[in-house]
Every structure is written in structure tokens, then in C-alpha cells.
Amino acid sequence: MTDSPTGNDSDNRFSSMLITLFKGVLYQDQHPQYWQTLLDHVARVRDYVRVLGLELTLDEAEGYAFLRHREPDDPAEERPRLVPRRQLAYPVSLLLALLRKKLAEHDTAGGDPRLIVSRDDIVDMVRVFLPASANEAKQVNRIDSDLNRVVELGFLRRLRGQPNQFEVRRILKSFVDAQWLADLDTQLAAYREHVADDEA
After folding, report:
1. What are the beta bridge partners of residue 168?
2. CB-CB neighbours of 42 under 10 Å
3. How many CB atoms are located within 10 Å of the residue 27 CB?
4. I want to staple 63 with a disulfide (CB 3.0 to 4.6 A). Which of 28, 40, 116, 186 is the partner?
5. With 0-12 CB in 10 A as exposed, 13-18 as middle and 19+ as buried, what is 61?
6. Among 173, 148, 135, residue whose Cα is nearest residue 89
């Protein structure tokens, strides 16, 4: 196995794999040909993106890889961010937290590695933490909007032919880590206080 692609086909696959990584998350199940190229040339990819101030996050067991900003070795050294930091609104953060908790519970129970949730389940899950509203339809529309945002971010995927069924993507574990999850009760208490402040 070589760590440097040879020939036009290999060069094209390598370039396409890098472009896919720069555009977002590379999933094994969505791009198996690029996934294998990445595995064959991990060291080369790490060296390549390091020059750009990035680092490769690769989880072979879960089947995903993505690029994130690498903090400089010298804290005084400043460099522009190629991968922008995303500021998430409170309701989107809440939804991600609840989905991550549900994923942890699902993993503990064992069985199917995929977690499938319905839109109605998500609405019920989030509504508990939102201010009481006389206009239920408006509140549900807001949750749908947040749900669409989470899909755009790549943490949920709609099932083909079942628009109200979603797969929770396991990459969520990389963004909401175990330590954060351990403090989730505290986080959710803070969310409840946030709701109480909004209602006051």
C-alpha cells in the first residue's frame, strides 16, 4: 500500500476526496470510494491540511471524517480560520443536546447501531424545554425550522421516502463529547432557567 497516489485515476480520486472533506463531512456510507482513498493516504492528508491550519478528525469505527481548525502551537500566533466557527442559536443547541442524550441512551441499550427518530418524537422532546405558547402551530413551525437547521449541519439525515423520519448521525458524538454529556443535567437545568426567564 502506498502513501502517494499514482496515475490519473488515483490523483482524481485523491483530489475528489480532499474536495469532499473541504466541503464538509466525509461519510463512509455515502462515499465509499473516497473513504477508502482517505484510509489509504491518511498521513498525506494530515500533512496537507496541517499547512492550512487544519487537522483531520477521523473515526473509522463510526465511519466519518471531517476537518477542524487546529489551534496554533504558539497561542500568540494568529491565523485566519479556513473553517469558520458556527454560532448556534439556543433552540438548535438544545435540540443537539437532546439528540446526543438520546444517542447515548440508544447505544447503552444496544441493538441497531442506527438511531431513527420521528419528527413528532423530536417535537415532543424539545417542547418540554420551550416557553409555554398559546400558538402551538407557531411553536411547532419554529421547531421544524430548528430541525431543518440541524439537517443542514449534518447531524440528522432524512430517510429516503420518509420525510418525517430521521437518522441521528453519529458524528454528533464528536461535537457533543462524553464530558459535556456527563454535565448534561446541569446544561438542561440552565435551559430550563432560560425558558423561565423568557416566560417572566
Report:
1. 115, 156
2. 14
3. 21
4. 28
5. exposed
6. 148
pLDDT value at residue 196 = 61
**Are 197 and 129 in contact, with CB atoms under 8 Å apart?**
no
Tell me which amino acid residue 52 is: L
Kindly report whether the global pTM for this prediction surpasses the value 0.85.
Answer: no
Q: Which residues contact 43 (CB under 8 A, 6 or more apart)?
A: 3
Q: What is the dihedral of CA 71, 173, 168, 50, to 10 degrees?
A: 30
Report the distance separating Cα 65 and Cα 103, nearest Å.
19
Find cell 416566560 and name the residue: 199
Among candidate residues 130, 129, 149, 142, the one with its CA nearest the CA of residue 86: 149
> Collapsing DSSP states into helix, strand and coil, what is residue 200?
coil
Residues whose CB is less than 8 angstroms from the CB of residue 87 and which lie 6 or more positions away in sequence, other chains included = none
Q: Are 20 and 33 in contact (CB under 8 A)?
A: no
Query: What averages of pLDDT result for each successive group of 10 residues across the chain (200 residues)?
Result: 56 91 88 94 94 90 88 66 67 86 88 90 86 78 91 90 92 74 65 61
* Nearest by Cα to 96 from 73, 66, 117, 75: 117
